[in-house]
Amino acid sequence: MNFRTSALLIAIFVAPPAIMAINITSFRGSSPRKLRPINPENGQWNENIFEKEIACTLYLKEILLEPEIPSGDPLQDLENARTVTSWSCEVDDEEINGNAYGIQNNKRKNFKRFLDLTGVDEMYLDEHADSGNSILKVKGANMKFKELEITEEATFVIEDIPEERRRLAPSLGALKTKVIRVSGNNGAAPPTATAAQLKDDIFDDASCLKSQFAACSHGALTIIEGPIEEVTIATDPGGPAEFTKDWMEGNATALVAKGEYDLVLFCQPQTTGGWIAYAYINYWSSFYNNDWCQYVSVQLHEVGHNMNLAHAGEARSEYEDWTSMMGSGTNLDDEYMCFNSVNYYQLGWFPGQVADVAASTHMGSHAFVLNGVESAGLSGASNGKKIAVRVKNVNLEDTNLCCIDTQFYTDWRIRDIYLGYNFDSGTGINRDTAEYRNHVTVHQKDSNDPSAYSQSWLLAALQEGQEYTFPNFDGLGGGHTLHIKFSDQVNEDAFVEIYVTGITLTPNPTSPPSTNFPTSPPPTLPPPTSPPTKAPTPLPTRAPTPLPTRAPTPLPTRAPTRAPTPSPTPLRTTIFGNQNFEVGFGSVFISGGSNCARVLYSNRNCIRLRNNSGQASSMYTNARSVSGQKTLRLEFDYYSTATFLVEWRVPNGSWVIAGTVGVANTGFVRARVNFDSWVSRGRPGSIHLRIRSNTTNGVTYVDNVIFYGFK
Q: Residue 573 — φ and ψ, nearest 5°?
């Protein structure tokens, strides 16, 4: 996983498999157990078996934890972080205080509002529960220290929660927002940021929770500033799990009546180590460890979870989509970035600027003009421009079928596709997007339900003139290929064409079907007085003209009256040009040692790297200036029998992996390696590059190397 510090990744919740609101019943055992006597006071928490039915709302919770043995390097610790996932059940205060469950009065204080749910398979809950929209009804459950255990003898059912009882954070309108700064009463240090600093970082800053949500939604979602409340709790907060239950249960003066606020952010002190931030999905609360409460990318990410947004990933990393706040984040005080097309479609901020296309073998050709978030809503609602286009596979019958995993890749078919335009003017609300500026983005979502809490994946980012293809997109095995082409760019507009090839139409018959014309007249009718003067003209004998083999011509109405203005970004700089190794190691690279050599292979003069002998299996450069660049990319042709590494380092520093390149042993292919780890380490202005074989007996051939920077 790659992270970036200026730039530290904040990605907390892992999307469960396609969660849908359904009404499914599951019972275990024939009857609940009898009520057991409460254990005597012995310093331990008491257990209760509840014969009465308990009803509670299910919420998904996932916390990012530091490694068991922290290194002291925040970036390294994040790269080795651990994730804890669990389901919790929220019980109504009224039912606890009203003693609906028959709890002894002197034990009622031990019954926590939020209970960790145990004794039921988590995968079952992932499949059958919808966080914030499902209710668990159980008899015979065992309540012990802050958890609700579904015993073997218990019976339970999961149902849809009535809409009027749901406590979801809306994604539209004005959201009244409160911030609680938490301290313990044991002398522990409070959060580093003062109440005044938190007010500035959350409500007043140029880029903060309030300003960036308003900007990214073009006013469809606004944050209404509430007070910064100082709360001292009765015990040491002790981490997210303890804090959630102890504070919300035992400190009534600090508990916010949910009718008064739509969102509540809890900023906890620095003594509660080992975690970064978390939120309950489809709920009103989010929690931040110390100074993580101050960073806008963390705020939008966690509140995004409150609004039912899941993580945004790329390749096999669930957080690596750097075009969305639901992917990576940074520890920058001010950051200007928004969301991806999957998020926009789900949030409903631009109802006039989303579109659906039914992808099928008879879909024909469709053309759209896409706008990025910076220009969305300004004129698009009236002139047909879109911020998100959903390409739905109408041939799909099994909506739970997803993707096909192989050893080296995931074959992303079947799922719906989302198109967007990651436009960046260089000065607007999306100017800190970390990758694929002014590219058309192609995403998929793990669920075909556009409103579901479900992981999104960045599949491709297209430059002008490029197209992306989905062979056998419909899963029917008929050779049908879906094409998505970024055909043209004019100022802030991206022109996109969508069409299908590989369709064979059944030709019309060469003569009328025999069943349409009887060979003899019916016996009850006399023959005609005279035969027809001639037989009917036969139908055409040739098939219709086949579909074109290339993309349709662009829409004629979009041609500008003058030459298109070049896109202002990305401003690509060639740091060093094509190294084709026709002479030695070119003008840039240096041999690392005995396992690096210039050879003739497959009619190419190229560099051969082999084995796993460190520097000796590499070629490297002297220090190159990359000052002022926002992102870096190394491109090259290669043939390799094993994976190998592209690395970088600052002068006199240690080598850092920029990317691992996969096997390509059927011919030379083109590789593009983005230097995300360089971004995450603050974009140092001078670096060395290295390409290194790191597999015993592996052989790699490299040619035509180019190094780019993007501003």
A: -115, 130
What is the gyration radius of the CA atoms in the chain, in angstroms?
31
The DSSP 8-state label assigned to residue 422 in this structure reads -
Q: Is the confidence at residue 601, as pLDDT, over 80?
A: yes
Q: Which amino acid is at 237?
A: P
In a domain, 691, yes or no: yes
Q: What angle do CA 324, 328, 330 make, to 5 degrees?
A: 110
Residue 392 lies inside a defined structural domain of this protein: yes
Pairing mode of beta strands 417-421, 440-445: antiparallel
- Convert the pLDDT of each residue in 85-107 to its tens digit: 788 888 865 554 444 444 444 44
Residue 462 CB neighbours (<10 A):
21
CA distance 456 to 324: 10
377 shares its domain with 466: yes
Q: How many distinct structural domains can be found in the chain? A: 4
Alpha-carbon span 585 to 591, nearest angstrom: 7
Smallest CA-to-CA distance from 349 within 297, 304, 391 is with 304
Tokens 């970390």 sit on residue: 434
**DSSP secondary structure string, 625-667?**
E-TT-SEEEEEEEEEESS-EEEEEE-TTS--EEEEEE--EEEE
The dihedrals phi and psi of 504, each to the nearest 5 degrees, come to -110, 115
Phi then psi for residue 81, to 5 deg, are -65, 155
The CATH number of whichever domain residue 230 belongs to comes to 3.40.390.10
Q: Look up the domain containing 177 and give its range.
A: 173-308
- Helices within 130-237 (DSSP H only): 195-199, 209-217
Beta strands in 502-595 (DSSP E): 572-579, 589-591
User: Could you tell me which of 189, 179, 280, 268 has the C-alpha nearest to residue 224?
Assistant: 179
pTM of the complete model beyond 0.70: no
Tell which residue, 127, 293, 88, has the closest CA to residue 203.
293
308 backbone dihedrals φ, ψ, rounded to 5°: 80, 20
**Domain end position, chosen among 469, 501, 533:** 501
Q: Cβ–Cβ contacts within 10 Å for residue 92, how many?
A: 14
Q: Which two tokens stand for residue 36?
A: 């057991």
Contact 420, 388 (CB under 8 A): yes
Question: Is residue 11 scored above 60 in pLDDT?
Answer: no
Q: Distance between CA atoms of 634 and 706, rounded to whole angstroms? A: 6
Taking only the tens place, the pLDDT of each residue in 105-154 is 444 444 456 788 888 888 888 888 888 888 888 888 887 667 888 888 88
Please, which contacts does 101-110 make with residues 24 or more away whose CB atoms are closer than 8 Å? Answer: 101/50, 101/52, 101/54, 102/50, 102/51, 102/52, 103/48, 104/38, 107/38, 107/46, 107/48, 109/250, 110/45, 110/46
Give buried/exposed letters for 577-601 (b at 16+ CB in 10 A, else e). eebebeeebbebbebbeebbebeee
Say what the pLDDT of residue 550 is: 36
Query: Rounded to whole angstroms, how far apart are CA atoms 233 and 183?
Result: 6
Round to whole Å and give the CA distance between 285 and 262: 9
* Amino acid letter, 436: Y
3-class state of residue 296 by DSSP: helix
**Token pair belonging to 153:** 């003898």
Answer yes or no: are the C-beta atoms of 278 and 269 closer than 8 Å.
no
CA-to-CA distance for 125 and 131, rounded, in angstroms? 9
At 482, which helix (H) or strand (E)? strand 481-490
